[in-house]
Design brief:
This protein has 293 residues and is α+β, with helices and mostly antiparallel strands. Helix content is 25%, strand content 24%. The chain has three domains: 4-72, Uridine Diphospho-n-acetylenolpyruvylglucosamine Reductase, domain 2 (2-Layer Sandwich); 76-200, Uridine Diphospho-n-acetylenolpyruvylglucosamine Reductase, domain 3 (2-Layer Sandwich); 220-285, UDP-N-acetylenolpyruvoylglucosamine reductase, C-terminal domain (Uridine Diphospho-n-acetylenolpyruvylglucosamine Reductase, domain 1, Alpha-Beta Complex). Strand 10 and strand 11 form a beta hairpin. The chain starts with a strand and ends in an 8-residue tail after the last strand. The structure holds flavin-adenine dinucleotide. Residues 14, 48-56, 70, 88, 113-116, 118-120, 122-123, 125-127, 169-170, 201, 203, 207-209, 283 line the site of flavin-adenine dinucleotide.
Length: 293
């Protein structure tokens, strides 16, 4: 398996921000991924799993360790009636379109989430119909040392934007869907929800999705709005006018430090004005709140 050195991470994530990874690999098979995890475990290299990078902020200083990019692990098949088995790097948006066409109901509300199925399951991505974990029948997981096994979806600890997968890696996912539904009904529902998303979220600007999780029963975006910080900008990082829980990378000029300083400012204002502590939804990789596996 080819290990590359010094690859720039800004080109590999939605935000277009980030320095270089000491080691970077794009496995072509699950066996490749196992070998990489075995290698990094033996070498004691911090390892970061990267899907489409739509929920990640890399540090401009880069990532010291191995970044495993799942983008080449594509593809899905109908495992049994109503159950789709997809590889970790399968694009979620195209999967939604394709299962809609097959008349399989369940994923239609996950339209407009620009990620991989592995990243979506890891972070229990949410749509109007609930978290993706509700649809997961089984997940094939790889332990840090490379051991691989299927896990029943009911044995995972699904919570808001959390799966309990921890330091394991998602290799394949089985999703349970309702068969024999009219494809046109599913397509229309996806189109309706996508239109709503496009109206309420910045879609054609570089962001990383929502910065903060919504505290129970509250909207982080609304609280930030109420703090009176309309389009506050620090360097190249600006609070989105369309949705205050998104930070935009204006003209591609934001540094990771600009984004983090703006995050700190938003948190402080919400703490002072609402007495609420916001938790991050974006994953900070190789930054102050580093999360590695
Ligand atoms: C415009 C826009 C709209 C969005 N709308 C939504 C939305 O409606 N709902 C929502 O929940 N999110 C939304 N997001 C956020 C993001 O798209 C989702 O969180 C998505 O599921 C991330 O998938 P990814 O493959 O890009 O993961 P990445 O961003 O690459 O990674 C996210 C996390 O998952 C981990 N990970 C990735 N792949 C694996 C794997 N195979 N095994 C183990 N861990 C892995 C990473 O290490 C990281 O911790 C939006 C983002 C944008 C930019």
């Amino acid at each position: 398996m080819k290990l590359e050195e010094g690859i720039s991470l800004s080109g590999q994530c939605w935000y277009r921000i980030g320095g270089k990874a000491s080691y970077y690999a794009r496995p072509q098979s699950i066996e490749d991924m196992q070998q990489l995890l075995d290698w990094s475990h033996r070498e004691g290299q911090p390892t970061f799993l990267l899907g489409y990078g739509s929920n990640v902020l890399f540090d401009d200083a880069g990532f010291e360790g191995l970044v495993i990019h799942t983008k080449s692990l594509k593809g899905y098949e109908q495992h049994e009636r109503g159950i789709i088995e997809a590889a970790a790097g399968q694009n979620l948006e195209s999967l939604v379109g394709e299962v809609n066409d097959l008349g399989l109901q369940g994923l239609e509300s996950f339209v407009g989430i620009p990620g991989s199925i592995g990243g979506a399951v890891y972070g229990n991505a949410g749509a109007s119909g609930g978290g993706i974990g509700d649809l997961v029948s089984e997940v094939e997981l790889i332990e840090p040392g490379g051991i691989r096994e299927w896990c029943d979806g009911r044995d995972l600890d699904w919570r808001y934007r959390e799966s309990g997968i921890g330091d394991r890696v998602v290799a394949r996912v089985r999703i349970r869907l309702q068969p024999d539904v009219d494809p046109e009904t599913l397509r229309k529902e996806s189109a309706r929800l996508l239109e709503k998303k496009i109206d309420t979220q910045p879609f054609d600007i570089r962001t990383c999705g929502c910065i903060f999780k919504n505290p129970t029963g509250m909207s982080a975006g609304r609280m930030i709005d109420e703090c009176g910080l309309p389009d506050l900008q620090i360097g190249g990082a600006r609070i989105s006018k369309i949705h205050a829980n998104f930070i935009e990378n204006v003209d591609g000029k934001a540094t990771s430090d600009d984004i983090e300083r703006l995050i700190d400012r938003m948190r402080e204002e919400v703490r002072d004005q609402h007495d609420v502590e916001l938790d991050l939804e974006v994953v900070l990789a190789g930054t102050r709140e580093e999360r590695t596996r």
